[in-house]
Design goal:
heterodimer, A: alpha+beta, 4-stranded mixed sheet, 4-stranded antiparallel sheet, 10 strands, B: about 15% strand
């Protein structure tokens, strides 16, 4: 049992914290206000190796471990949750499945530019009718010689408007239900691919979310990840890693809520003293701080298990469930400590509140995480 | 970052789990029923080196690392929470004597404690000084031959079975100075009062102590004059790791009973574990207990490295005991009517775990410690 960070982990923490404080934080309010995609930050993060942290260097990544990934995600999200999710989707949902399931040729063609941050990736699993029930895919892929012809619509796809590459899930054999799902790497600039509705969201507004429409899109058979029917496995395996990223994002948001509320409570005077002198405020601060530490340990444990090639579905779900609910509680308390100032956008507390909510929903709702955990417990 | 247990930690886990399941668990219902101090459990703990885990073999200890200690305590409490708290306080007493005691004190008391000659007790709380521990009023008057203690202590765990009790008393009233004394049973003027009737941990010995013209030699002082509060707070930092582990042990047992029950119990034509209402409770309890365990291991690991860990110990104790209470509540609910009767152990678990958010610093005191360290930060 060793809780110390390695030299590398400490280094990325420092680098990410410094970058987040200097470059990301000053822009966060403006990015949110204008729902502006932070292109310049993504470029800078690419230079730091943050777009493919756990991808080996030979494939364009930074060649670090998943604990490093969680650490960097927390720091970036502490400053701007939107920038955090853009990074997380590229790392976990686009790079990771190609690294794990793609052929050497596909890795060279798609993974190298994404992991190095020259191109951006997205993950096409959700459909208008397939949310938590991800197995009920309607997007179809029909084999035609060396190609598959893809038709269907994906929605709520993070990064879609800026993405060059999509890890796409399709149904190749409807009769087999979730065992008939097949995953592909699809070029977003290809013929027949178009963007649908651009969503206006409660929070993480600087991250772009839209639907993608596929009309007779011809995808080379070599772009398939794994075999036909492996898609559900690819998706679940990918989400086990993705949940570590979102858990870390949630911790970053929770920390932002805590650190901002703490600073405010020391400055703000009522009844003749700083409000941090009141137990009502101290209790909120103590509970948030304790829960954040607990969430971080769960998240690092899951990341460490992934690095150690251990099964970590249950542990990733625990980390994601717990961290996201902590983020929401922390944001609620953060607003409360600020009182009226927590409700106006002069202070960042209201943004943290709006940003925190999504972490309980995407990459598996809290309810789906509880299903995963309970199934693992009851199986014994 | 490495979450593996070391070989030593794994061995401790296996050995103590085996002992607890085979011997302590099966006796726990009867110990509770009869409110009986399980002296045979105490003996077994001594035989296996579990009563002096935090000091070296030269003094009869087994010098385990604090993570191993946390694991051992969790496993003991998982079988019998009363035995767990007795073990925790004996270890805490021994550790304080090792850290602050003279060589003569170490040589006299530490082998007795680890050898199971008696338990160790820690007398800080008084009828009028609970969370406000500094407000104690037991007084130690110094004269040419030593000190004369007067006052009373309340809620003292292991008090009637202790071979040595650390007693905190004022040695000066203004400005207030608190000092620590090592008092042996049979010392004239020292008497053990009534045994409390408690909601849970009924097999643990909880008594009041009174001191009337109780004369102790100068050599019985632990540490230097005026060091009492420092000794107490330092012991409590470690003690909190113990109580947090106790809570996790109790709650894990409750969760495991509830999980098994949810698999077997059928209603509406299916196992109740198939219902999301039940799954949610199990998932939340398991997640929180894992988080609690990691907080405890982190605090223990900091302690093992000789670093400051007050805030982390308070976080671990606050979180583990609150989460443990929630888990035991959920377990009773999963078992329904069967959770409320003594045929199943979860009603005992719920009664036993209730005290963990109270003793060795209430949850409110932990939050004070944590928030002070936060607000003090730049």
């Amino acid at each position: 049992m060793v809780f110390d960070l390695t030299e590398e982990q400490r280094m990325i923490q420092e680098t990410a914290r410094e970058f987040a404080r200097k470059e990301v934080l000053p822009k966060a309010a403006e990015l949110d206000e204008n729902s502006r995609f932070p292109e310049e930050l993504i470029r800078q993060m690419a230079e730091l190796g943050f777009m493919g942290i756990a991808v080996p260097e030979e494939y364009g990544g930074a060649g670090m471990d998943n604990v490093c990934y969680a650490i960097a995600m927390e720091e970036i999200s502490r400053a701007c949750a939107s920038t955090g999710v853009i990074m997380s989707v590229n790392n976990s949902l686009a790079c990771d499945p190609i690294l794990k399931f793609g052929s050497e040729e596909i890795k060279r063609e798609y993974l190298v530019p994404m992991a190095s941050g020259k191109r951006l990736g997205c993950f096409g699993l959700t459909e208008p009718g397939a949310g938590s029930d991800a197995g009920s895919q309607k997007t179809s892929a029909v084999r035609d010689g060396d190609f598959y012809v893809v038709n269907g619509t994906k929605n709520f796809i993070t990064n879609a408007p800026q993405a060059d590459t999509c890890v796409l899930f399709t149904m190749t054999d409807k009769a087999k239900s979730h065992k008939g799902i097949t995953a592909f790497v699809v070029d977003m600039k290809g013929k027949g691919v178009s963007l649908g509705k651009h969503e206006k969201k409660m929070g993480i507004r600087a991250s772009a979310t839209s639907s993608i429409v596929f009309e007779d899109v011809r995808v080379p058979a070599k772009n398939r990840l794994g075999n036909e029917g492996d898609g559900f496995k690819v998706a679940m395996n990918t989400l086990d890693g993705g949940r570590i990223g979102i858990a870390a994002q949630a911790i970053g948001i929770a920390r932002a809520s805590l650190e901002d509320a703490l600073a405010y409570s020391k400055d703000r005077k009522q009844f003749g003293q700083a409000i941090c002198e009141f137990q009502a405020i101290q209790w909120m601060l103590a509970d948030i701080a304790t829960e954040i530490d607990a969430a971080r340990l769960l998240t690092w444990r899951a990341a460490w298990m992934k690095d150690s090639k251990m099964r970590h579905s249950k542990e990733s779900s625990m980390a994601k469930l717990y961290a996201s609910e902590v983020a929401m509680r922390a944001a609620v308390k953060g607003v409360q400590i600020h009182g009226g100032y927590g409700y106006i956008n002069e202070y960042p507390a209201e943004r943290h509140f709006r940003d925190a909510k999504i972490t309980e929903i995407y990459e598996g709702t809290s309810e789906i995480q509880r299903l995963v955990i309970a199934a693992a417990l009851l199986k014994g | 970052m490495d979450f593996h247990l070391t070989d030593e930690q794994r061995q401790v886990e296996e050995m103590v789990r085996g002992l607890s399941r085979k011997e302590f668990g099966p006796r726990a219902a009867q110990v509770d029923e009869e409110s009986r101090y399980p002296v045979e459990n105490h003996r077994r703990l001594a035989e296996l080196g579990l009563l002096g885990m935090l000091y070296p073999a030269t003094f009869g200890g087994s010098e385990a690392d604090p993570v191993s200690y946390a694991i051992a305590l969790r496993e003991v409490a998982g079988g019998c929470a009363s035995t767990g708290v007795g073990m925790a306080v004996t270890n805490m007493t021994g550790e304080a004597i090792f850290r602050f005691g003279s060589d003569a004190q170490r040589c006299r008391y530490l082998p007795m404690l680890s050898g199971g000659k008696g338990a160790g007790a820690f007398a800080l709380t008084e009828p009028g000084a609970g969370s406000d521990a500094g407000g104690l009023s037991t007084f130690a008057r110094e004269d040419a031959d030593g000190y004369v203690l007067d006052g009373s202590k309340a809620f003292i765990t292991n008090g009637a079975h202790a071979c040595v009790t650390i007693v905190m008393a004022l040695t000066r009233k203004s400005p207030r100075k608190i000092s620590a004394f090592l008092v042996e049973p049979g010392t004239p003027g020292f008497s053990v009062g009534k045994s409390e009737h408690k909601m849970g941990i009924k097999g643990s010995d909880t008594v009041s102590l009174s001191f009337e013209e109780c004369r102790v030699p100068k050599s019985s002082m632990l540490g230097a004059p005026g060091e009492g509060l420092k000794i107490a707070l330092s012991a409590l930092d470690g003690g909190r790791i113990g109580i947090a582990s106790q809570a996790i042990g109790i709650a894990r047992s409750a969760l495991s009973t509830a999980t098994e029950y949810a698999r077997d119990r059928r209603q509406f034509g299916q196992a109740i574990g198939e219902f999301q209402a039940i799954q949610w409770k199990l998932a939340d309890a398991a997640t929180e207990l894992d988080a609690a365990q990691l907080l405890v291991f982190r605090a223990a690991s900091l302690k093992g490295k000789g670093l400051t860990y007050s805030r982390e110990a308070s976080m671990a104790k606050l979180f583990a005991t609150e989460a443990g209470n929630r888990a035991c509540h959920a377990a009773v609910q999963v078992l329904g009517g069967y959770g409320y009767i003594r045929e199943y152990p979860v009603e005992r678990h719920l009664r036993d775990i209730r005290v963990t958010t109270i003793y060795e610093g209430t949850s409110e005191i932990q939050r004070l410690v944590i928030s002070r360290s936060l607000v003090g930060q730049a």
